[in-house]
TrEMBL record:
Domain of life: Bacteria
Protein name as catalogued: MMPL family transporter
Cell location: Cell membrane
Name of a matching Pfam family: MMPL
Location, primary (coarse class): membrane
Gene Ontology CC, one term: plasma membrane
Mode of membrane association: Multi-pass membrane protein
Keywords for the protein's UniProt record, in alphabetical order: Cell membrane, Membrane, Transmembrane, Transmembrane helix
SUPFAM superfamilies for the chain: Multidrug efflux transporter AcrB transmembrane domain (SSF82866)
Domain SSD: 264-402
Segments crossing the lipid bilayer: 20-41, 239-257, 264-282, 294-316, 348-371, 377-403, 438-456, 665-683, 690-712, 718-737, 758-781, 793-813
Length: 832
């Protein structure tokens, strides 16, 4: 029959001949490759890394890399031991705290030299006495709570309490209400360990410490990147359960749709094969799977099911009705299972390839963001979607050519009885293709798009809430973060500005030290900054100490000799300076890591350094001055200061937020540009391409509004969803329009073509949208907040893009495509 040849170009016929002429060879090759990929997939390991999360090429991260060995700070873990009731001054608390401090230091990945605790020798006090200065460790040698036979007295506790006040660590290493104390533990640089740090191991050891020492009297709170990774990895294990639930739920829904368990199983099988191949390919390429990217296999499965439903639906129509059916009285003759598979293959090869190519391009555009974890996601998803071209457009139709209905004649009779069940609904939808209703639909869509554009501006780039948004608010990590924030004047949220100057600037350059001191004062007056630490502040305290402790002398000495006296007692392990005092960090501890807080602090630093000419872009000033000093001694007289942003975890977030913000619109531009190009090449119609694209734009704008309403920030975990929404969303429109085009090319009216397309593929599109939305909707029960958020966003994309393809596409075609291109000369009344 001639209509069966519609849409079958030379390429489809040649490809069909190759594929179906060698069916057994195709199955054997797929079976062997699946066995190999399953082997490699079984070796896949979780691979988390701190530097994978950050844009290493960003200005701020260049500062972080330059000073990682000297100052660290961005990859820090904080462990607080707190008494449940009362203050910490009893022997049992100090016994627990000393043991926890020792065990944390014994973790091989912890940098001993930069670990700070009441029991470490780098936590000291200095006081003014009659003969000058006196000092020592905050915990004296005689204070040994775990030594057998030692009973601590009130005098011992009074001594420690006094030393804590003298050391000015109340609110930092000791809780403001004296209820507990904290351990700062910086991890060693990732590059110093072959294969990188094992963050799950570190998190496991920290959790073991908690389990060992937390009891009815003491609580232990742990925060930091390593613990986040561990908690996310623990939560990600539930992803396996959700994956199984999604597969089962999809199978049941697909079974109900096809009325055939074997065909539902084949559709699921092909999608699962794509997932196995994706994971195996990752292992072959040397990648692991990051906990943040643990949802990528879900996406591959969802896309595979989406295209699998279309292939199965096309095969059923070919097998039972010869490819087309309008009503029971005009049902075509069914074809044998092999011919049906060939027909479905030929009809879906082009639209399926275009849709999947759009998905691939959408993911590849994410490579624009120079953050390793996002690039890994882009590579993983792109590989997965590329493999779906093989599993769903080649393997699936070949499998369908071998499997038939148990009773084809009975299945045809049942299908004929059901064939008109949705006709009333289809007839209702065809009204949207009439000029009046079409115009109303377009106006409503534009209004919704305008609302999304306006309200979506409230969406934050970065974290919009306190705590770690990847975890539930009630998660132990977020509860620990809240507890630490309540009791201490600082937490893990800090940003460090490195002031570069000439060697020995802290002793020879009063102007440099004075500028750094003014920066500290400037930051202390920024909303969201809790405390600021820097060398000039400490030097002023020492200077006052040399002058009877008078507050009047709490200033920076202008005389180099006095300045040397005020600063010479500070060692590099204090974190206040480097070895030759050519780099002096200014650390601001923040109340939270919300995007608005970080932006406010970063803007304040930029404003200050611009006003004080303390910014030399792309220059490591201390190295430059040191080189000049080696050649000509007079360059030591330079008072130049280069204020470099930024290290600390908030500095990392600032860099990430800026990269995400900068890449957001170019990425979306590339995504839409690629989709437009592919649609133009496939359909050769600007109006049709615009009709396919506009619904995607409207849904994207509404998705931004949804993220703003739900306080979901645009960040590393959520940005890829924008590209995914466009890639998957275009699938629905492409499948519907490709079927409409077949009928339009025969001279049928737009309304008639739309009705026929709905009869043939509308049910499959609606079923796919609903099934995928329900499948990812189960994620809202996940222990991981970001998985629950992704479930909401993806469900929104699946449903709204489906609605856009069903309703807005024909409305736009009515007004965007020239009359002769939509068969206006044909009868254009709703079909009956």
């Amino acid at each position: 029959m001639e209509h069966q040849r519609q849409g079958q170009g030379p390429f489809q016929r040649i490809a069909g001949t190759i594929v179906f002429g060698n069916r057994m060879l195709v199955l054997i090759v797929f079976a062997l490759l699946t066995a190999v990929m399953l082997f490699f997939a079984s070796q896949l390991r979780v691979d988390a890394g701190f530097k994978k999360q950050i844009p290493l090429e960003h200005e701020y991260m260049q500062t972080f890399l330059d000073y990682e060995q000297e100052f660290g700070g961005a990859n820090r873990v904080l462990i607080a031991v707190v008494k449940r009731e009362g203050d910490m001054f009893d022997q049992s608390f100090f016994q627990v705290f000393e043991n926890v401090s020792r065990d944390v230091i014994n973790i091989s990945e912890v940098d001993d030299a930069r670990t700070r605790s009441l029991f470490t020798p780098n936590v000291r006090f200095v006081e003014v006495v009659e003969d000058g200065f006196a000092g020592g460790n905050v915990i004296p040698d005689t204070f040994a709570p775990n030594l057998p036979g030692v009973e601590l007295t009130e005098d011992d506790f009074d001594t420690v309490r006094s030393n804590i006040v003298k050391a000015n660590i109340l609110g930092r290493l000791v809780a403001r209400d004296w209820s507990g104390a904290m351990i700062w533990a910086d991890l060693i640089p990732e590059d110093s360990v072959p294969g990188g740090l094992d963050y799950q191991k570190v998190a496991g050891e920290l959790e073991a410490i908690r389990q060992q020492y937390e009891d009815d009297e003491h609580t232990i709170h742990i925060i930091g990147f390593a613990k986040v990774v561990g908690d996310i990895a623990d939560g990600a294990r539930s992803v396996v359960v959700f994956f199984a639930v999604t597969v089962l739920l999809t199978f049941l829904l697909l079974w109900g749709y096809t009325r055939s368990a074997r065909h539902a199983a084949i559709g699921i099988f092909a999608a699962v094969i794509a997932v196995i191949w994706t994971l195996g390919t990752l292992r072959m390429l040397g990648f692991g799977i990051d906990p943040m990217n643990i949802l990528t296999p879900f996406l591959v499965f969802a896309i595979g099911v989406s295209h699998g439903v279309q292939m199965i639906n096309a095969w059923i129509n070919e097998r039972l009705f010869g490819g087309e059916i309008i009503d029971a009285s005009h049902a075509g003759e069914g074809r044998d299972k092999l011919s049906a598979a060939k027909g479905a293959f030929a009809k879906l090869l082009l639209p399926g390839s275009v849709a999947l190519a759009s998905d691939i391009v959408g993911f590849l555009t994410i490579l624009l963001i120079p953050i390793q974890i996002i690039r890994e996601l882009a590579i993983t998803a792109s590989i997965g979607v590329a493999l779906i071209i093989l599993t769903n457009l080649v393997l699936l139709p070949v499998l369908l050519s071998f499997i038939d209905f148990a009773h084809p004649a009975r299945s045809r009779e049942k299908a004929l009885l059901r064939i008109g069940h949705f006709d009333r609904f289809w007839h209702f939808l065809t009204r949207i293709s009439q000029p009046g209703p079409a115009l109303i639909a377009i106006v409503i869509a534009l209004a919704l798009g305008g609302f999304g554009a306006i309200y979506g501006q409230k969406m934050t780039v970065g974290d919009s809430e306190a705590g770690v948004p990847e975890l539930r608010p009630e998660a132990r990590f977020n509860q620990d973060a809240e507890a630490i924030t309540e009791r201490f004047a600082l937490g893990v949220d800090s940003i460090t500005i490195v002031a570069e100057a000439r060697p020995d600037a802290c002793t020879l350059s009063y102007p440099a030290m004075e500028l750094i001191d003014r920066l500290g004062w400037h930051l202390r007056n920024v909303e969201g900054v809790q405390q600021v630490l820097h060398l000039p502040m400490a030097a002023k305290i020492v200077n006052a100490g040399w002058n009877d402790g008078s507050i009047r002398w709490r200033v920076l000495p202008r005389n180099p000799d006095n300045l040397r006296v005020a600063t010479q007692g500070f060692e590099t392990d204090s974190g206040l300076l480097n070895a030759d005092c050519s780099a002096i960090p200014v650390t601001a501890f923040l109340a939270d890591h919300k995007a608005e807080t970080i932006t406010r602090v970063v803007d304040a630093v930029k404003e200050f350094r611009d006003a004080n000419e303390a910014w030399y872009p792309g220059v490591n000033l201390r190295e430059q001055l040191a080189e000049q000093a080696a050649e000509e001694g007079q360059f030591f007289e330079s008072d130049a200061v280069n204020l470099r942003l930024a290290t600390g975890n908030a500095g990392v977030m600032a860099a990430t937020n800026e990269r995400v913000s900068a890449a957001r619109w170019p990425m979306m531009g590339y995504v839409y540009g690629a989709v437009v190009l592919l649609c133009l090449l496939a359909f050769r119609s600007g109006g049709a391409t615009l009709a396919i694209i506009v619904p995607l734009v409207v849904v994207s704008l509404l998705a931004n509004a949804l993220m703003a309403f739900m306080s979901i920030g645009l960040k590393v975990n959520t940005l890829p969803v924008a590209a995914l929404g466009v890639g998957i969303g275009v699938d629905y429109a492409i499948y519907i329009y490709s079927r409409m085009k077949e009928f339009l090319d025969r001279g049928m009216s737009l309304t008639e073509s739309y009705f026929r397309a709905l009869k043939l593929t509308g049910t499959a599109v609606i079923f796919t949208g609903l099934t995928l939305a329900v499948g990812v909707g189960t994620w809202i029960f996940s222990a991981l907040q970001f998985q629950a958020d992704m479930g909401v966003l993806l469900s929104f994309f699946f449903l709204m893009n489906m609605v856009g393809a069903i309703i807005l596409l024909p409305a736009l075609l009515r007004w965007l495509v020239r009359p002769k291109r939509i068969g206006a000369h044909a009868h254009d009344a709703p079909p009956h």
